[in-house]
Amino acid sequence: MVDDSDLDAARRRIASAATLEELRAVENDLLGKKSAIAAMNTRLGELAPEARKERGREINELRSALTGAVAARRAVLEEGDRSAGIAADRIDLTEAVRVPGVGRAARRRGQLHLVTQTRDELEDVFIGMGFTVAEGPEVETDWYNFEALNIPPAHPARSGFDSLYLKLGEPGTVLIRPHTSPVQVRVMEAQRPPIYSIMPGRCYRKDTPDARHTPAFHQIEGLVIDRGITFGDLAGTIEEFTNAYFGPDIHSRLRPASFPFTEPSAEYEVTCVICHGTGCRTCSGTGWIELGGCGMVHPNVFEAVGIDPEEWSGFAFGFGIDRLAQIRHSISDMRVMADNDLRFATQF
Ligand code: PHE
After folding, report:
1. In terms of pLDDT, which residue wins out, 291 or 129?
2. Residues 190 and 339 reside in one and the same domain
3. Distance 214 CA to ligand 1 centre (A)
4. Residue 99 lies in a domain
5. Residue 43, SS3 per DSSP
């Protein structure tokens, strides 16, 4: 005979099983082949038919009470296991950033690098002037980087770019671009004039890092092609852009220069904001900072991409984005742009 206190004791054993394994052992004890219930079942045959029926019903009730208690406890333990599994699998996606001066790991939100912010701002200025933004690959071929830009093989201008070549294809034919001008060619190939586009991007040259140079830097190229475009349009666009980006106090000047892909060509310079024109380390004592080159698109470039130079004329320019940011924020040494020092980066 099984009384209520036996049933309570069995329930307590089930409830106090702390792990699924313990529960399995208790279940085996209470309901398995060697359990009291199994023994009771075996002895049923010794009873008279009436008593056997009654006893059978009791045993079944007992069995289902215990089975239910085991199932309930198993559900609780399994849920616990699942939560523990989830907790153990948790990945911490937050990154501890050590902020100099704070003295312990503190968490702070990231931000865009000054160069990226400057690029965004320049895009806004030009978009406001009606330009679209285009992009091209950083790995270029000889055709886009030189030949289509009126720089044939062995042209002396090639050495001026201090290009970095890749071990790809014929030696000396694939390079990481030293300027954004190849994107001009890609834009002209993809689209018929009129064209009003800027092309920002990263460039590379074999330069030794100094106050004004880093081997990886950024340029923003501009290209305008339409009917009747003149050098005056170029000068006016550059003046407009200089005032929009630097404010009305910074002046620009164009000085005669030479580029194979433009004729006539000019160098674009702005007043040095560090020394205000008196001469300092940043401007190499000249009072002016050279930001890039510009000029009227050479007829040979038009011919390389199948645009009729009799019908269309245009101008192009290429400025250093890092250089523009350096000037506007009076950063005396360009190298901090690439140093990854948060004390610099978080100032902007
Ligand atoms: N690509 C030239 C350079 O990097 C700049 C330039 C662009 C000059 C467009 C003229 C026209 O030096």
Report:
1. 129
2. yes
3. 17
4. no
5. helix
Please report, as a single letter, which amino acid is at residue 183: V
First and final CA of the chain: distance in angstroms? 84
Q: Are 144 and 186 in contact (CB under 8 A)?
A: yes
Residue at 193: amino acid letter: P
- For residue 152, what is the DSSP state? -
Evaluate whether 27 touches 70 at the Cβ level (below 8 Å): yes
Structure tokens at 346: 């978080």
Classify residue 310: in a domain, yes or no.
Answer: yes
pLDDT value, residue 144: 98
Place 289 in a pLDDT band, splitting at 50, 70 and 90: confident
Task: Kindly state if the Cβ of 293 falls inside 6 Å of ligand 1.
Answer: yes
User: What's the CA-to-centroid distance between 320 and ligand 1, angstroms?
Assistant: 10
Give how many domains the chain has, as a whole number: 2
Contact 297, 314 (CB under 8 A): yes
Residues 6+ apart with CB under 8 A from 86: none
Contacts of 239 (CB under 8 A, 6+ apart): 252
Strand order in the sheet with 174-176: 139-141, 174-176, 164-165
CA–CA separation, 304 and 77 (whole Å)? 76
Ligand 1 mean position, distance from CA 23 (Å): 78
Residue type, position 92, single letter? D
CA distances to 3, 165, 289 from 9, rounded to whole Å, are 10, 83, 91
pLDDT digits (tens, 9 = 90+) for 265-280: 999 999 888 788 889 8
Instruction: Report the atom number in ligand 1 closest to the C-alpha of 184.
Output: 9
User: Which residue range is the domain that position 209 belongs to?
Assistant: 114-345
Residues 56 and 161 in one domain: no
Q: Is the CB of 316 under 6 A from ligand 1?
A: yes
Task: Quote the ligand 1 centre to 316 CA distance (angstroms).
Answer: 8
Q: Give the count of alpha carbons within 13 A of 335, CB side only.
A: 5
| Dihedral of the alpha carbons of 247, 252, 258, 259, in degrees to the nearest 10 | 10
Instruction: Name the average pLDDT for the chain.
Output: 90
**201: Cβ–Cβ under 8 A, 6 or more apart, which residues?**
135, 136, 138, 177, 180, 183, 218, 219, 220, 221
For 270, counting Cβ atoms within 10 Å of its Cβ (0-12 exposed, 13-18 middle, 19+ buried), the class is buried
CATH of the domain at 175: 3.30.930.10
